[in-house]
């Protein structure tokens, strides 16, 4: 998620270029009611919070105004009651309303409810003849009901009322959370969109687009399009009209619609091959995290809300409970012209308390409206101090959210960032940018760790990318083992050379013994690509000592199996297409096991040769799984 805006409901006065992701409406106005499900059918307050994040992502770009879009938010069963006020025409009030729902779920828990009562509330408050808050005349009307209710009879009982809604011009879209459309087949609706509970944390942009295009932007029967006028839901995003400030005064300046620029991938693709990825279960991360958040005027209130929603989504899936072996410590620092510690790592041992304070702490309620200067250097200085106070031997990362960047003078953050990375810690950067703005903020990537720089251009992938980056921080090898890193991507494979000459058979048994303090599943190395082969050869030469080993040759986990009458790998792989045989090999007359032998071509050029499994001596190169969310490694002293 990000605060970059899709210009979903922009003024419709300029002709625009057409593409497949755009929906045509005339005029660009709607009366929209969105129902937020806070009932116990949602199972947990975390799922409710993620539902609210999804609704924030759906609505934050809408241009709210009495002459354009009006939005009513209905909270169903929050605090065991219904909350439904008049239509909003101020987007900042929408943010506050959604956060009040989030806090109610966290503070009071979830209460049982049903779909029929929800529909009756809509009828009495917004749709029926005696409704408190009716629609405008000659305006297309939409209702989007987020619902996890699954009672078939309960749902079927709403058919007549929902049919009446349709007759009155309300098109109803049901977003079924954790329920299938079959459950709702006996009621009446315009569109059904299914979202699984496990998808709420990282809702695909395609689902948001479906709700927008098929549930909101379509034209009612009888509405025509005399000229090209548009509300766009293009997944190539642009930022909403922003607030520009001068010291001592505030001027609201709406920027004209901007043609989105093509967005290149943030990073090159990962290497091709069946390399072992580290396990990535967010709930089982064992790392220390310091969030450093830009609260200058350049971030804007919408941006700050989206940053908080992202942090909420990420931390809400982790465990901060110190009684659990694999848990996370989290701190948060804000910065603009100066920096301030908002949350200390020692303040929290419960993720729900952290996320609640994230939305209620007055220091994070708004940006520093009159301060458009940024001093990331000061923010990273405090982050470095905070990292030093956190757990010893645990992997650490700083996550920087920035809407502005300064690489000159006292604000230059490059040296302090280099010091942090030189201490063995990672830095993740997220540049919040708009296509027409200066590219300077994109330069923040120069302080990040490899493959850990992201932009909000790719907002539909951002949470998923950040989760992967945090799992990369949590992906490392036991002390003394070397990790497989290909094109700056860390993999769940670790290597260690044996220290004495022995037969292939002896080293085969030595590898599990060397890994007994971790998984105990160590084995002679598996080589499955030229890229990995080059890495292993270079690693072995770095560790080769000519005083202790005459020639830098090493055993690999490849051997001839008499039963199947073919070469197989010791880890069970039988169909690896890669091989690197020397001329004249394999040669079963010389032996059934395999060694990598250095050639005369270059120092790191090795070829495979056949050796006697029990007679020919050499060193072994062992392979073991990395430490990750599955395999715990205790803190290193």
Describe this structure in words.
- With 637 residues, the chain is α/β, with parallel strands linked by helices.
- The chain folds into three domains: 187 residues, Rossmann fold (3-Layer(aba) Sandwich); 193 residues, von Willebrand factor, type A domain (Rossmann fold); 144 residues, Mannose-Binding Protein A, Chain A (Roll), CATH 3.10.100.10.
- It is 25% helix and 22% strand.
- The strands form five sheets. Strands 17, 18, 19, 20, 21, 22, 23, 24 and 25 form a nine-stranded mixed beta sheet that branches. The chain has a six-stranded mixed beta sheet with strand order 4-3-2-5-6-7, sandwiched between helices. A six-stranded mixed beta sheet has the order 13-12-11-14-15-16, with helices on both faces.
- Strand 12 and strand 13 form a beta hairpin.
- This is VWFA domain-containing protein.
């Amino acid at each position: 998620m990000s605060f970059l805006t899709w210009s979903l409901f922009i003024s419709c006065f300029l002709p625009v270029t057409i593409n497949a992701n755009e929906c045509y409406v005339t005029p660009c106005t709607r009366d929209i009611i969105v129902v937020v499900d806070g009932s116990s059918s949602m199972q947990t307050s975390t799922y409710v919070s993620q539902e609210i994040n999804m609704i924030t992502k759906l609505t934050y770009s809408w241009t709210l105004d009495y002459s354009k879009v009006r939005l009513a938010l209905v909270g169903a069963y929050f605090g065991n009651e219904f909350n439904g006020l008049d239509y909003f025409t101020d987007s900042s009030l929408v943010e506050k309303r959604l956060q009040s729902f989030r806090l109610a779920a966290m503070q009071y828990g979830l209460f049982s409810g049903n779909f029929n009562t929800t529909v009756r509330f809509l009828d009495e408050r917004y749709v029926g003849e005696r409704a408190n808050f009716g629609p405008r005349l000659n305006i297309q009307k939409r209702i989007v009901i987020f619902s996890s209710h699954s009672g078939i009879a309960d749902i079927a009982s709403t058919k007549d009322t929902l049919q009446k809604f349709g007759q009155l011009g309300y098109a109803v879209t049901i977003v079924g959370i954790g329920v299938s459309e079959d459950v709702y087949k006996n009621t009446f609706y315009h569109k059904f969109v299914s979202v699984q509970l496990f998808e709420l944390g990282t809702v695909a942009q395609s689902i948001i687009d479906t709700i927008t295009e098929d549930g909101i932007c379509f034209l009612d029967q009888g509405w025509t399009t005399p000229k090209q006028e548009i509300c766009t839901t293009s997944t190539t995003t642009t930022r909403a009209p922003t607030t520009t400030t001068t010291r001592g005064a505030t001027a609201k300046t709406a920027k004209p619609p901007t043609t989105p620029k093509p967005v290149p991938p943030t990073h090159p693709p990962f290497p091709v091959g069946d390399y072992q990825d580290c396990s990535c279960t967010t709930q089982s991360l064992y790392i220390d995290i310091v969030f450093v958040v830009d609260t200058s005027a350049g971030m804007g209130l919408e941006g700050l809300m989206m940053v908080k929603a992202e942090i909420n989504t990420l931390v809400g899936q982790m465990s901060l409970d110190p009684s659990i072996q694999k848990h996370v410590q989290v701190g948060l620092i804000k910065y603009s012209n100066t920096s301030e510690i908002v949350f200390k790592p020692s303040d929290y041992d419960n993720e729900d308390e952290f996320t609640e304070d994230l939305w209620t702490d007055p220091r994070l309620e708004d940006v520093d409206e009159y301060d458009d200067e940024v001093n990331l250097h000061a923010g990273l200085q405090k982050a470095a101090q905070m990292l030093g106070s956190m757990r010893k031997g645990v992997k650490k990362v700083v996550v920087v959210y920035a809407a502005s960047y300064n690489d000159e003078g006292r604000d230059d953050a490059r040296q302090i960032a280099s010091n942090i990375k030189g201490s063995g810690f990672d830095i993740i950067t997220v540049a919040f940018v708009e296509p027409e703005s200066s590219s300077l903020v994109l330069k923040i990537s120069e302080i990040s760790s490899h493959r850990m720089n992201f932009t909000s251009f790719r907002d539909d992938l951002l949470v998923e990318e950040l989760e992967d980056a945090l799992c990369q921080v949590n992906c490392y090898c036991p002390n003394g083992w070397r990790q497989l890193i290909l094109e700056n991507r860390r993999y769940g494979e670790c290597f260690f050379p044996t220290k004495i000459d022995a037969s292939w058979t002896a080293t085969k048994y030595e590898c599990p013994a060397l890994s007994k303090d971790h998984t105990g599943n160590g084995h002679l190395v598996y080589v499955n690509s030229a890229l990995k082969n080059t890495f292993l050869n270079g690693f072995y030469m770095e560790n080769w000592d000519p005083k202790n080993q005459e020639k830098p040759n090493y055993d690999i986990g490849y051997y001839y199996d008499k039963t199947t009458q073919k070469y197989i790998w010791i880890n069970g792989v039988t169909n690896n297409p890669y091989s690197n045989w020397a001329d004249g090999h394999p040669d079963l007359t010389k032996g059934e096991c395999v060694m990598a032998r250095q050639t005369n071509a270059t120092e790191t050029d090795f070829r495979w040769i056949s050796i006697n499994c029990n007679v020919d001596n050499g060193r072994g190169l062992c392979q073991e799984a990395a430490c990750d969310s599955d395999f715990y490694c205790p803190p290193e002293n």
